[in-house]
Predict the structure.
Amino acid sequence: MTKRQLWLRFTAHLDMPLLLGLGLLMLTSLTILHSADNGGWGQPLKQVLNILVGFTAMWIVANLPLHYLMRTALPIYTLGVVLLIGVALFGDISHGARRWLNIGIATIQPSELMKIGVPLMMAWYFEKHEATLTAKNYIVATLLLLVPVALIARQPDLGTALLISASGFYVLFLAGLSWKVIGGLFVAALASAPVMWSMLHDYQRHRIEMLFDPSQDALGKGYHTIQGMIAVGSGGLLGKGYLNGTQTHLDFLPERTTDFIFAVYSEEFGLLGNLILLGFYLLVIGRGFIITANASTYFTRLMAGSITLTFATYAFVNMGMVSGILPVVGVPLPLMSYGGTSMLTLMLGFGMLMSIETHKKLVKT
Amino acid sequence: MSKHVELKNHQREIYYFRLRLALSIAFVMTLMLILLARFFYLQVVRHDYYQTLAESNRISVVPIVPNRGLILDRNGVVMAHNYSGYTLEITPSKTHGLEETINELATLIEITPKDRKRFKKLLAERRDFETLMIRNRLSDEEVARFAAQQYRFPGVEIKARLFRDYPFGEKTAHLIGYIGRINQTDVERLEENDLAANYRGSDYIGKAGLEQSYESELHGTTGVEEVEVDSGGRAVRMLSRSAPVSGNTLVLSVDAKLQEIAEQAFGNYRGALVAIDPRNGEVLAFVSKPGYDPSLFIDGIDPQNWDELNNSPDTPLNNRALRGQYPPGSTIKPFMALAGLHYGERSPSYTISDPGFFTLPGSSHQYRDWKKGGHGSVDLFKSIVVSCDTYYYGLATQMGIDRIFEYLSGFGFGKKTGIDLGRKTEQGYDGESSGLLPSQEWKMRRFKQKWYAGDTVSVGIGQGYNLVTPMQLAMATATLANNGVAYLPHLVREVRSTRSGESRLIVPKQTGELKIPADQIDLVKRAMLAVTQPGGTASQAAQGAPYHIAGKTGTAQVVGMKQGEKYDASKLDERHRDHAWFIAFAPAEQPTIALVVLAENGGHGGGTAAPIARKVMDYHLLGKVPQPLPDSAATGEPEHD
């Protein structure tokens, strides 16, 4: 093979517009990580490694034909549920929550796997019963969603449970769940809010209370929210300038390379920077929707739609949390926050999107 | 057919899916708009607010407390200064259990129950995040021992602080006073006077004595350091700094050595001594006995010591020189004599025959002279030398109370002297008592009674309604010594600015001048000189002095005596014995020192008070340091007054 052929083979299943969006976000991430690391290169370099691993995973998945992808649904889902049960029984406790499972060689967080596993399973299930969809199928699909969500919620990891619920709900929504049921669910959710409230752990309640009045515990639970809002607000129109954020560099921002990286970005680049960042996200999301619209099968439509919507939701929840309109739930800003696991999960998702886009053409021809 | 239906379904399916997809896109756009709105609100609408918060997060204004000014005596001897020492301090919020921490500390460094009590007191009145002292004056060894174990004690640290020290302790307690921790009342007062900013970071404020009256000079100007801090409050770098300005140095007119000698001369007597330079009002010595240890008050006195001081029958906290009010006794006589001459009621040659008592016309009540049988023929000169009571009973009666009031007011009786002690207010310094110079108007106001002739009789010998403070009597004596020209008494002679090194001298301020004809003042002064000569009531105390002392003894009755009863000191409870007075100035011809001595329950002025005055004058005029006497109370044959 010539170099050119090799290049074509390499890029055959990569979706360039999507890749452009991802690349822009990753570059932004490395730039701001350098600042969040107080001008150091340690975190950005490690993030480069995370990106490389993520990219490799994405490339492999992108090159997998769709039927392979579908075939992985049931094993991944089953493994995920088994591991979640394992966590519930033998998991390690850290920070008061049982989320990690020690499998001998490493500790893993099975809930992360389910971010992909749940929508994959549901989409696969709908595809399987596409011809004869009845109400029963929606109920089964909902159960497929609720089992892992319940297991995750009782770890407790409410943030992840809610986000997985969202990604599952997107599948249900796109699969054509009747409006009556959606309305009913909405009413039921409102009605069950007080019950849910009473079931929440103290720290979870605190986070929600802080949302309404962070100042009541400015040095305690409300600290994250207040410092995040100060960082964003003091950034102003144009920001304080790269590497000049006082909130960041004087250590007022907690978790500034992970969950609160948006505050660092926003403080240094201001409203203008935020607009640009939202633009990058919209590029990725928009391309995701186009891929969804063009998807040729029921499974791929559901999968692509759910991946795109979930990605948008993650971005919204994180930025909403940092800017103080959502409780602090511990969700990283997708592709921006430092972290290998979330990078890998996201890139697997984008690999699927690319596979959906590129294999569709092959199927047609 | 079925194929057709499937195809149609498929298209419908696609249609529905695209509809839902469109809704999804709308949903995402809504989320993005919400974010945008929020960003706009935070970064544009509320930008100034968050900008301020970020700045205040970032910048911490740290006050730098100035060093308190020194207090020196007129010769540069240090009477109050600062020394640095190590303290062990606790930030309660950072410890894991306060009680446990203290108990644990106690195994390492000695912590007395007194330290614990003081700590509890500090804890109760602490201000926001300050650290609280558990131990002061750590030895180097203790510092080293703690430093090695510090990791075990979160929230506990060693601090270097400046402490106030009073080298003369008790001897100058009523003069120098003390500083103490700023309490709520102080804070309110500072805020009222717009001084709160300058006291940011200050822990102490003058509470008594000169420390209080010259607080504004001694405190200095607080400096400010603007530092950038991180979230842990650690300083990252300094942004700006304005250095503090140390408080000014006070140079007193008081002579520390003289003060010490005067204090010691009292022996076990309680009382007061004030010595003034009559030529300018400079106070040379200011003693109130007993004193107290001023250092007890600096960090809040513990209840045990407080009870001891407060409930002691010797009332050591009472500033007798400034606030003690006593009948002046016979020391009033020279002033009465001057009044008699002034109003023409007596001429120098006017002579009475003293039978040993005085009666008012139409009354049989006998006002007795201290000497049974009387002094025989007595003129004005002799009346002072032998302290004849009968002479003054008659003189006072003839002058009438209102003329006495008018003339004695000129010497400052019944009025505050205005000495610079106490809290500085717009009306002058508070804390001084004004004594009492009675008048008809006063009695009506006070008792709703008219003045009786009998009231005047005892006023004549300083034993009626009239009361004086030692400070007042000292001022009157100085005025007399200075031929009627009065200067405002003051303890501070000079204020030295630390910033510029410049000195501000306190200029003598004349407060009044009594036009006393030379022959009148000479006569009284000669008589007062004769008091210390053989035949006078204070001759023994003045024996052998190579300079002339003009003086007057006095005895103030503590308990009234019935008609026909004889005073017998040995029969009386010690605390009911008479107070001994002595006023004097020397050298009699050109006085440079005028003083008053009060020895409470000291009996006779000549026997107890005059020897104290002699020691003070000997040092002042001759530089002679007295040999400590085995018992200063035993001063031989009691002389009469």
About this structure: Chain B touches chain A at residues 13, 16-18, 20-21, 24-25, 27-28, 31-32, 34-36, 38-40, 42-44, 46-47, 49-51, 53-55, 57-58, 228-232, 236 (CB under 8 Å).
